[in-house]
Amino acid sequence: MKTEIHGTQQRRLSIEKSILKEIDAYSTSHQKTRHFCELIDSGQTHDYSWIVMTLIGPSLDIVRRLLNKQYSKSCVINMAVQILDAVEIMHEVGFIHRDLKPGNICTGNPPNDDHVLYVLDFGISRRIFKNNKSRELRNKRERVPFYGTRKFCNRACHMEQDQGRKDDMETYVYTILDLFHNEKGLPWSKDLTDQKKIIMKKKALFANPHKELDPMIPSSISRIINYLNGLKFQDPIDYRFIEIELKSSRSELKTSDPSDETMDWTGKLEKLLRESKKNKKAETPKGEETLMFERLTLLKKAKEMASSGQLSNEASCAKTLTSKDVDGSEGPPTGFNTTQGTNESRASNMKIEKPPKIEKKKSRSRN
Ligand SMILES: Nc1ncnc2c1ncn2[C@@H]1O[C@H](COP(=O)(O)OP(=O)(O)OP(=O)(O)O)[C@@H](O)[C@H]1O
Ligand SMILES: [Mg+2]
């Protein structure tokens, strides 16, 4: 269940609901899609809105930690092929994700579905068509507030420009590179405070991928970056080109496994999750009711403070409730509660921390 308190945040849940519904409709009318949760129910109370979707497995961030920060290269290629499939479906249905990252991609449930990756968290996704029937693309906007996560967002997002499908693909590339890099991380991930430096490094990578990419990265990634470099805002994406390039790296990596389905955690995820729970590696977050209660209590407290003049207004309440995640991403505190509760990041996502200084402009910044 994902919740959103009324009045304290941008309406992220309503777009999540639309996307899950539209993907489901597409799946019924066009081609059966995997990679997305099913929307089971939704509604609202006086204080908050909620959606219920299928409960899946842990995020790729968590699985990596469970595997002691080691994804094999062939597993990353398999993940990249599946994530590409998911992004293609989203674009086809008419949305760009705008916040792709390992924390927003989860495995299916062990034992039978954990080889399938699911893309979630559409809180800052955006419609791309003026009208779904004509499929005419919306015009490029002049200036857009920052919507994304500093570590993974594309250059357009950093520069507050409108993002299109090609920009989503840029974020896709950073996500795949992050998965390849395991412990080392992306070239800019050590210091996420200096946005200028991050932009410079991302620009350098796109200007000369062959030189900038770590030698252990398959050369297909460099060709994919070169291909994306040639695209303009409105251009469609040649997903097949990207897929062929990815699959071609299997021979470079000398992997014999031709399927996209064998993952490093195949057959061991349940055990890994059990052990991590025992060792308290992945802390179980508090129960569903407690979390929701805590959030509502916090909101109530903040509202009381606002009305007694201790906080200047409702916006301050929202700021008080801002959360921060492992990628240094910030955003309004959409709650996510599960009954399995095996996941470390869920716990850290729920942590309410003091927000950083909010800049002049209204934005759904997760920098
Ligand atoms: N359907 C689901 N089944 C299992 N786990 C989920 C599901 N949806 C989300 N999660 C877990 O909860 C975490 C947070 O969910 P999500 O990213 O949708 O929320 P969010 O508040 O928008 O996150 P953030 O703003 O931190 O990116 C995910 O990283 C994932 O581990
Ligand atoms: Mg998320």
TrEMBL record:
SMART domains: S_TKc. The keyword Transferase applies. One of its GO terms (molecular function) is protein serine/threonine kinase activity. It catalyses: L-seryl-[protein] + ATP = O-phospho-L-seryl-[protein] + ADP + H(+); L-threonyl-[protein] + ATP = O-phospho-L-threonyl-[protein] + ADP + H(+). Keywords: ATP-binding, Kinase, Nucleotide-binding, Serine/threonine-protein kinase, Transferase. It comes from the Eukaryota. The keyword Kinase applies. Residues 1-296 form the Protein kinase domain. Its EC number is 2.7.11.1. InterPro entries: CK1_Ser-Thr_kinase, Kinase-like_dom_sf, Prot_kinase_dom, Ser/Thr_kinase_AS. Residues 322-367 are annotated as: Disordered. Pfam families: Pkinase. Residues 335-348 have a biased composition (Polar residues). This is non-specific serine/threonine protein kinase. It comes from Caenorhabditis tropicalis. The lineage of its organism: Eukaryota, Metazoa, Ecdysozoa, Nematoda, Chromadorea.
